Amino acid sequence: MEVEEPWQALACCMEIARAVRAPDPAAYISHFPVHQDGSCNGLQHYAALGRDSIGAASVNLLPSDVPQDVYSGVAAQVEVFRSQDAKRGVRVAQVLEGFISRKVVKQTVMTVVYGVTRYGERRGRASGFPEGAEFVWEASHYLVRQVFNSLQEMFSGTRAIQHWLTESARLIAHAGSAVEWVTPLGIPVIQPYHRDSKVMIGGGIQSLTFSHSGDTSQ
After folding, report:
1. Exposed site from 23, 59, 71, 112, fewest CB < 10 Å?
2. CA–CA gap between residue 216 and residue 218 (Å, rounded)
3. How many helices (H) and strands (E) does the chain have?
4. b/e for 193-208, b at 16 or more Cβ within 10 A?
5. What InterPro entries does the annotation carry (predicted)?
6. Which residues are CB-contacts of 176 (< 8 A; sequence separation ≥ 6)?
7. HSE-up of residue 85 (Cα within 13 Å, Cβ side)
C-alpha cells in the first residue's frame, strides 16, 4: 500500500506468484502488460535530429550498461553552477544550497524542449519554494536560468535546432504565412496561430467592437 501504484504492484505480485507456482517457472509465458516510457522524449527527438551523440547517451538512445537519467545529470550540472556562484558570494546561490534535486529540475527539463519560456517556467518554478520563503522570485529565476545553461552545456545541438526553428517560424509568420510541412508519411501539418485584436468604434447610440485575427510573429 506504500508504493506509488498499489493496484499495479498487486497485479505484478499475483503474476509472479503464478509463475513461481507453474510446473516450470522458466517456461512460464506471461501476458502481464509492461509499461514503457521514453527518457524525456523531447530531448530524444532533438538529439536524434542533431546527431548529438553526447545528448543521445544522456537520454538512452545509445547502448549503455546502465540506464541514464537525464534529470539527475542536469541537477548535478546545476549544482556545479550553484556551488561556483555560492563560492563567489552570490547570495541567491547560497540560499539554494541543499535545494537542487532531480525533482526540482525535472519540470523545467521536460517543458523546455516544447518551447516554454524562461518567464513562464519561472512562474511555475516559484510555486516549488516554501511558502513565505525569501528570494522566491529571484531564486526561481536563478534556478531556471541555470537549468537552461545546463541544457545548453549538455545538449548544444538541441538548443541550436530550437533557435533555428524559432527563427524560421518568426520569419514565416512575419511574411503572413502559417508554419506548415508534410510528414514522411505524407500527412500535412499546419500551425495557424493567430493573435486576436479588437477595435471599438464609438457611436452616438451604441459602440461596436470588431475582432480581427492576424498571424503571430512568434
Report:
1. 23
2. 6
3. 9, 4
4. eeeeeeeeeeeeeeee
5. DNA-dir_Rpol_C_phage-type, DNA-dir_Rpol_phage-type, DNA/RNA_pol_sf
6. 215
7. 19
Domains assigned to the chain: 1-35 (no CATH), 41-159 (1.10.150.20), 180-218 (no CATH)
Measure the CA–CA gap between 62 and 186, rounded to whole angstroms: 29
Taking only the tens of pLDDT, the chain with its 218 residues reads: 888 899 999 999 999 999 999 999 999 999 999 888 888 888 899 889 888 888 899 899 999 999 999 999 999 999 999 999 999 999 889 988 998 999 888 888 888 777 665 545 444 444 455 544 556 778 888 888 898 888 888 887 887 888 898 899 889 988 888 899 999 999 999 988 777 777 777 776 777 777 655 544 44
CB 163 within 8 A of CB 184: no
Closest CA to 105 of 82, 84, 133: 82
Cα 100-103-109 angle, rounded to 5 deg: 90
CA 119 to the chain's CA centroid: 14
| Grid cell at residue 73 | 545529470
User: Would you say 97 and 82 are in contact if contact means Cβ atoms under 8 Å apart?
Assistant: yes
